[in-house]
Amino acid sequence: MNNEDKKIKTIVRNVSDSDAFDIACRILKEGGLVAFPTETVYGLGGDGLRAESSEKIYAAKGRPSDNPLIIHIADMADVERLAREIPDKARTLMEAFWPGPLTVILKKKPEVPDTTTGGLDTVAIRMPSHPDAARLIRESGVLIAAPSANTSGRPSPTLAEHVIDDMNDKIDMILDGGPVGIGIESTIVDMTGDTPVILRPGYITKHMLEGVLGEVKIDKAIIEPDPNLRPKAPGMKYTHYAPSGKLTIIETSGRSYGDGNFDSDDTESRDDFGGPVSQAVIDRINLETEKAESEGLVTAVLTTSDMADRYKCKNIITLGESGSGTTVAARLYAALRECDRIGAEVIFSESFDRDELGFSIMNRLLKAAGHRVIEV
Ligand code: TXA
Ligand code: MG
């Protein structure tokens, strides 16, 4: 994409440039929007304490305004400015995982505009570990409300190019920090009740949370789709990540019943989330793509790189390595965007065990597939 054709006023490729930070800070202080890298995905930042900045964010994303924003902070003391109450367990959690890919839900102070929290009485707070994000918050003095910097419904951006594609003439500036490290959004934990509840699975897994908190629940509505259950994180109810083509997940039967729990017979490494797919899965994907191609459709296969040469499809889009959740998470959204770029009409994907990080990855992949799964 030629950036000359684009209307974003400033795209800064070298974020170590202090002039860039000065401009970004000025924009934020004046109520404008700046996209910036975090360790999870790129965020679309505005002043979280100004209702008009949050309104601009909803407009730029095309996002329903009942879907609240996360406020990003750089210092522990900032929590007191936002939250009415900080339970002991919440403090323990923040001390264990901040700065990092964890968002905590607490009861909000009246100073936090209802626009930012989508009318809820609670506020989502996260302290990112990415140095550019931390620097932007500190130097601007702004508590930055930032959803993922994608158009509502599309995969979250893991490269500045993804933000440019989606935000075109809608925002003032992008700080380009290169590819993000993690690639899926933060884990959201509701700390307003007696037992902590995971509202959105992410890089920090249930097992890791239990290590510091004891019992942790998962919002039932995010485990299996059920139209009668309403997710407690409003954003989890919307269609998300879906490529324009029809994506179907092919998996070995029995894989679908994970619930985010860590099985004691699993290996101790959280990055081990299942080995290569079975021959039956490969055969079925080859059969399906051949059939679709014979009907003249553009097909694509999402596969881990070590399995790539087993497929006959011309458009192979790789997703990291089997057995390594971190590499799959890092590639997932770019791969889903790639499906659209090549105009894929029918897409088949391998599946991953739903334990540990695999649970968070499958949460996204299943949404992208509209929960279309074929068991073989
Ligand atoms: O990793 C991340 O969390 C990224 C980076 C930029 O920090 N941000 C992000 O924001 O993913 P967003 O807006 O795309 O997703 C925020 C999610 C939505 O599902 C929203 O409904 C939920 O958090 N949320 C925000 N405030 C909430 C609240 N008070 N109660 C429950 N859910 C909340
Ligand atoms: Mg988002």
Number of helices: 10
The whole-angstrom Rg is: 20 Å
Oligomer classification: single chain
Tell me the helix content: 25-40%
Tell me the series of helices and strands, N- to C-terminal. Answer: EHEEHEHHEEHEHEEEHEEHEEHEHE
Strand order of the largest sheet: 1-8-2-3-7-4-6-5-9-10-11
Strand content: 15-25%
Sheet of most strands? 11 strands, mixed
What does the overall shape look like?
Answer: globular
SS content category:
alpha/beta
The ligands bound in this entry are: threonylcarbamoyladenylate, magnesium ion
Question: Averaged pLDDT, please?
Answer: 91
> Tally of extended strands?
16
List keywords for this structure.
10 helices, 376 residues, binds threonylcarbamoyladenylate, binds magnesium ion, globular, alpha/beta, 11-stranded mixed sheet, 5-stranded parallel sheet
Describe the protein's architecture and organization.
- 29% of the residues lie in helices and 16% in strands.
- It is an alpha/beta fold.
- The strands form two sheets. It has an eleven-stranded mixed beta sheet with strand order 1-8-2-3-7-4-6-5-9-10-11, sandwiched between helices. Strands 14-13-15-12-16 form a five-stranded parallel beta sheet, sandwiched between helices.
- The longest helix has 17 residues, at 325-341.
- The protein is globular.
- The two termini are 40 Å apart.
- Bound molecules: threonylcarbamoyladenylate and magnesium ion (MG).
